[in-house]
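Inverse folding, one chain.
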């Protein structure tokens, strides 16, 4: 069967990052809207909007794309259709003939209430792919568990990798991202370290809208829209990734840092342990600022421990290389 991947490219993902990298490792067609979508432009968007339920991510462009795909699917009655970002893109599509349908979901359960009370049209799928084991029970409320498959998110370990000389700045700590990050803990830790006059600085890569959180702090460098090469260098040159989280499933930052050999301190929440364990990361088990600061100082003073964490984290990510994950996915396409 011909494989078709449907995905919205996330603007904040680099060319080596994001779940849609799966399409580079699976022989497939990447669906792009064509003349059908363009012809729908003659109808004002406000009219199309009447067909939409309240949503933050599924808007008129996504609706038009699904209609486009549905029409073209009439001429592909034996294909495998895989929506790579179900939250964003899948609502109405119905596979035709002997075609198969797979949908990957990414958000932790509590976040789904912001998008839909019940995920739509799950009865049409051959299988749902989840990237965190914490998603399984949520979707099992609507479809049999045997149709819910945990297949980990992949990582490009040939791009995200340590440098040969492994020279890191022992006084620099990295934070990256915005989605489900615990900015309260991050700010509290930086404030405490400044009060203690500890010689450390934080590189914070996040959307500019979050910069106001850190107003008045001194030992920080705020960045946004960094290049892919710059981000890789930060992973390779900083002493530590400090990434407090509120919740999560797969996390690109954690995977990229781990593959790059950057020691990690993060929060023991969501599905983080699907990707890291006590040998490959340090887990915060409380929201106490003093405890977090102590954990940071302990690991910075122990180079041997940091080296062990880096090696184990890199080894862990090799098992999630896109070549491994894509092979597992192709088996799923055949079996379901």
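Residues assigned per position:
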């Amino acid at each position: 069967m011909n494989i078709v991947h449907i995905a919205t490219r996330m603007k904040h993902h680099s060319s080596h990052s994001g779940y849609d990298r799966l399409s580079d490792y699976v022989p497939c067609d990447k669906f792009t809207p064509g003349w059908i979508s363009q012809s729908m432009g003659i109808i004002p968007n406000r009219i199309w909007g009447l067909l939409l339920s309240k949503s933050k991510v599924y808007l008129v462009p996504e609706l038009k794309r699904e209609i486009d795909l549905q029409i073209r699917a009439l001429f592909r009655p034996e294909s495998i259709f895989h929506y790579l970002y179900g939250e964003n893109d899948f609502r109405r599509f119905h596979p035709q003939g002997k075609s198969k349908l797979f949908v990957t979901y990414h958000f932790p359960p509590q976040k789904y209430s912001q998008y839909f009370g019940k995920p739509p049209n799950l009865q049409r799928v051959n299988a749902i792919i989840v990237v965190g084991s914490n998603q399984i029970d949520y979707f099992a409320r609507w479809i049999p568990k045997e149709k819910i498959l945990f297949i980990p998110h992949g990582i490009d370990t040939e791009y995200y990798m340590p440098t040969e000389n492994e020279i890191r700045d022992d006084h620099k700590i990295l934070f990256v991202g915005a989605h489900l990050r615990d900015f309260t803990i991050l700010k509290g830790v930086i404030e405490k370290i400044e009060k203690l006059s500890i010689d450390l600085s934080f590189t914070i890569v996040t959307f500019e809208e979050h910069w106001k959180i850190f107003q008045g702090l001194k030992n920080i460098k705020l960045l946004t829209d960094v290049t892919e090469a710059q981000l890789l260098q930060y992973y390779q040159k900083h002493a530590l990734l400090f990434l407090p989280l509120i919740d999560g499933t797969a996390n690109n930052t954690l995977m990229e840092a781990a593959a790059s050999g950057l020691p990690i301190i993060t929060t023991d929440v969501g599905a983080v342990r699907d990707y890291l364990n006590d040998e490959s990361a340090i887990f915060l088990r409380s929201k106490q600022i003093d405890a977090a600061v102590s954990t940071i100082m302990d690991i910075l003073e122990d180079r041997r421990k940091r080296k062990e964490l880096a090696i184990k984290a890199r080894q862990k990510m090799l098992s999630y290389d896109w070549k491994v994950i894509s092979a597992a996915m192709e088996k799923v396409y055949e079996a379901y």
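The domain at 2-154+321-335 is CATH 3.40.50 (Rossmann fold). The longest helix spans residues 303-318.
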